[in-house]
Write a structure and sequence with these properties.
- The structure is a single chain.
- The protein is about 75% helix and about 0% strand.
- The chain contains 14 helices and no strands.
- It is mainly alpha-helical and about 280 residues long.
- The longest helix is centred in the first third of the chain and has 36 residues, at about 1-35.
Length: about 280
């Protein structure tokens, strides 16, 4: 018994020590960025994490010297539209694959799975030519279309796996009550699928919010820039402004952090339930 207790104590100590080390590696850079954003000069914190005389001047400069407000609104607009259309399109498509038997269903699911294997940057040239031919360069709606379409393969499998866990006896009961398939979806399946829908909402919002490659490729106008492009330009060139970059990075993290804190319970339920892909 003494040996067992000793092993348990050592195991517990090692687990907490590992967690503390990982937390330090994660938290320290965040504190360093926060401290640098409060630095009154354009440089970054060197001697200590927080400056002796913290100031909000860098946050003010973002909106006065740079076009940060426009970048923020552009990114927020793209992220919200992507989230809304992703929820609608992906859940309805997954419902079709989960509840309807039609010719080519398995082949369609297999095709969707294969599409997940290709990295998104392989299609950048094709996407640029499509946007150029349709006159949609420097168009935020083009970004929304690409983000929503790009999330279809993974989200269909995830949402379909969740919906397969909903008993099909509910479909039969709804049919006896005279409900159509569309009414079944909106009145029964949709309310029961809220956890996975919250997961799709957060991931669909986070993708455009933090993406750099696609907006850089398709957006050239300063008025249409997103946050990733604007912040990257702050630390490149001969007049790099690291303090303003850190302030902008802090403001970027606020919506994502808030969403994770509010929807944490639903995210865990969605991940666990949607992991079962069914038949």
């Amino acid at each position: 018994m003494k040996t067992y207790k000793l092993k348990k104590i050592i195991s517990t100590v090692l687990i907490y020590a590992n967690l503390i080390i990982v937390a330090l590696f994660v938290i320290y850079p965040l504190l360093w960025v926060l401290g640098s954003s409060l630095n009154s000069s354009a440089g970054i914190a060197r001697t200590s994490v927080f400056p002796e005389h913290p100031s909000l001047v860098n946050y003010i400069r973002l909106f006065t010297e740079f076009n940060y407000g426009r970048w923020y609104l552009n990114t927020l607009y793209v992220a919200i539209l992507t989230m809304i259309f992703s929820i609608v399109i992906h859940t309805m498509t997954a419902f079709v694959f989960a509840r309807f038997d039609f010719k080519g269903r398995k082949m369609g699911l297999l095709s969707v799975m294969i599409l997940q294997m290709f990295p998104s940057f392989m299609s950048l040239t094709a996407l640029y030519m499509i946007a150029l031919n349709f006159g949609m360069l420097n168009n935020l709606h083009m970004l929304v279309i690409i983000y929503v379409a790009g999330g279809i393969p993974g989200n269909i499998w995830l949402v379909r796996g969740y919906m397969l866990n909903i008993p099909k006896s509910m479909d039969e009961a709804a049919s006896i009550d005279g409900l159509t398939k569309l009414q079944l979806f909106y009145r029964i399946i949709l309310p029961l699928s809220l956890p996975i829908m919250f997961f799709i909402a957060v991931t669909s919002f986070m993708g455009p919010w933090m993406d750099y490659m696609l907006p850089r490729y398709l957006i050239n106008m300063n008025e249409r820039r997103t946050l990733a492009i604007g912040l990257f330009d702050l630390i490149t060139g001969t007049h790099a402004d690291f303090a303003a970059f850190c302030a902008g990075a802090v403001l970027v993290a606020i919506p994502i952090t808030a969403m994770y804190m509010v929807f944490q319970k639903f995210l865990l339920e969605g991940i666990m339930a949607g992991a079962n892909k069914g038949e």
